[in-house]
Each structure stands twice: as structure tokens, then as C-alpha cells.
Design brief:
It is built from 13 helices and 2 strands; from the N terminus they run H-H-H-E-E-H-H-H-H-H-H-H-H-H-H. By secondary structure, it is mainly alpha-helical. The longest helix is centred in the N-terminal third of the chain and has 26 residues.
Length: 275
């Protein structure tokens, strides 16, 4: 059909003088316009307008599938696995996204922007220590709910240029959060904004270690760290979770061993290796 319409358009524009005299300029333009419209609407007998809607539906299926799998298994998830979980062909994924990095960028750009917004919002607190603690707790909560986001925050080789530029925007407000808390005498003077990367990695590791035995228990270890960072306090901060039992520690050890196994993404509903 492409060939038919394109030849028709070219023929209409190159008619001999004798035949062209039978047509007005407007008539020729009308014929050409109708032919182009039909090319847009129909190629090789397939109607494209409904397909465009279907393509958007498939794109959302891919994004939803990737969001779910990345959150549970991390960025090691392949495009093939995402396609299977989405119920679409692998070719559909590659037509929407050239590679996994393009998909990661499309999926996580808003999530990283949310961290930028969180850092800026935390600065609005008049109590500099409260703002510092609020930022860390909210950041850790976001990372605990999304293993892919945690990996993206702690790595520089994922997400594309737009995501990396957004990550750079986190640095200035976080530095201000730290400087304010130090200036007001809450935060120990030798703490640096760059220490937050290591601190959150430590708490994130504890979260993964205890994933199968104590969901949210990372808050316990964050409290210990925050009490250690504060210059002085009248009393110790209440810990929101009890310590793990001996049996829970053994289960956590088993889970830590299994973290190096490739997760069974195809059996997503029954797989217990994810966070």
C-alpha cells in the first residue's frame, strides 16, 4: 500500500501539461492530501490509528511490569523477563525502549525527582535535626520499597544522563541539611554529607539481610545510627522494632546466602527471594 500511494502522489504531481489542464491546483492538492491521510491511516491494509492506542496500552504494561520487577528484584531484571511478566512479546518492549537503560530512565526519572523534592522539603523544617532525620527516614523508606531505586541511588552507571543530572541536584540541599544540623550543635562536627551515601547503604544492607524475617526492621538500625550521630541527648531514642530472635537470625543468614541466586522471575507470585 505504501508503494501504491506514493506512486499515486508522484504521478499526480508530474502529469503532462495536457492532463494537468483538466485539474485545478486545488483539486491536485486535495487528491494529494487525501492520499497522504490514507497513508497515515493505513499501511499494507492495517489500520494504524487503533494500533497507536494499542501501542500505548502495551507501553504501560511494560512500564508497570518493569516497575514491579525492578522494585522486587532490582535492576538485574532483563527485558525478556519484563516482557514475559507484562504478557507482551519481547519485540514490543524493544519497539518502545531501545535498551534497558532507556526503560530505567523512563521509569525512575520521577522517582529520583521525588528525592530531590524530599531534600528541599526537609530544609523547610525550622528544627534542623528534625529536617535531617526526616530526610533520612523518608529516603530509606523509599529505597526499602524499591530495590531498583536503591541500586540506582548508589550507582552511577544506571539511568542515563537525565537521571544522573537529577541525582546531582540532590547534593546541594543534602549538604545544607547536614551543615544546618552541625551549625545548630545537633550533628557531630566530623560528619560529612558524603557519609549519607555510606550510611544509607549500611541501613539498606540491613534491610536486605532481614527482608524475610522483619519487614521494616531497617528503622531499628537507623535509630542506632542516628543516636550515634547526635552530639548530645537527654535519653536514648525509642527503637521501633525488637531485636531478631535466634531463629530469625538463622533465617536471615539463609536469606543472605540465597540473595546471590538468580531469582525465579517467571514464577513471580511464588518466588520468595525478593525484598
Amino acid at each position: 500500500m505504501w508503494s501504491y500511494y506514493l506512486h499515486f502522489v508522484c504521478f499526480s504531481l508530474t502529469l503532462t501539461g495536457e492532463i494537468a489542464s483538466a485539474f485545478t491546483i486545488n483539486a491536485i492538492l486535495t487528491v494529494v492530501s487525501e492520499a497522504v491521510d490514507r497513508i497515515v491511516d493505513e499501511v499494507d491494509g492495517v489500520n494504524l490509528r487503533p494500533l497507536r492506542k494499542d501501542a500505548e496500552v502495551n507501553r504501560m504494561k511494560v512500564l508497570d511490569s518493569a516497575r514491579e520487577l525492578f522494585a522486587r528484584y532490582g535492576l538485574q531484571t532483563t527485558l525478556d523477563e519484563i516482557a514475559i511478566h507484562a504478557g507482551v512479546g519481547v519485540g514490543t518492549v524493544y519497539r518502545r525502549f531501545a535498551n534497558k537503560e532507556a526503560l530505567v530512565e523512563a521509569l525512575f526519572e520521577q522517582r529520583v525527582q521525588a528525592i530531590v523534592d524530599l531534600a528541599n522539603d526537609s530544609l523547610k523544617s525550622e528544627d534542623s535535626w528534625a529536617g535531617f532525620v526526616y530526610f533520612l527516614k523518608r529516603l530509606m523508606s523509599m529505597e526499602a520499597a524499591d530495590k531498583g531505586l536503591r541500586e540506582l541511588v548508589h550507582r552511577n552507571d544506571r539511568g542515563g544522563d537525565r537521571v544522573q543530572r537529577l541525582k546531582q541536584q540532590i547534593e546541594a540541599p543534602v549538604r545544607r541539611l547536614v551543615d544546618r544540623a552541625k551549625r545548630d550543635g545537633y550533628l557531630r562536627a566530623d560528619f560529612s554529607a558524603t557519609d549519607i551515601v555510606i550510611l544509607t547503604a549500611m541501613v539498606g544492607t540491613a534491610d536486605e539481610y532481614c527482608a524475610n524475617v522483619g519487614k521494616g526492621i531497617w528503622e531499628r538500625y537507623l535509630v542506632f545510627l542516628l543516636d550515634g550521630l547526635r552530639v548530645s541527648r537527654d535519653s536514648i531514642t525509642r527503637v521501633p522494632y525488637d531485636a531478631l530472635s535466634d531463629e530469625e537470625i538463622k533465617e536471615a543468614m539463609n536469606n543472605w546466602k540465597r540473595r546471590y541466586q538468580r531469582p525465579n522471575v517467571a514464577n513471580f507470585e511464588n518466588d520468595d527471594l525478593g525484598v
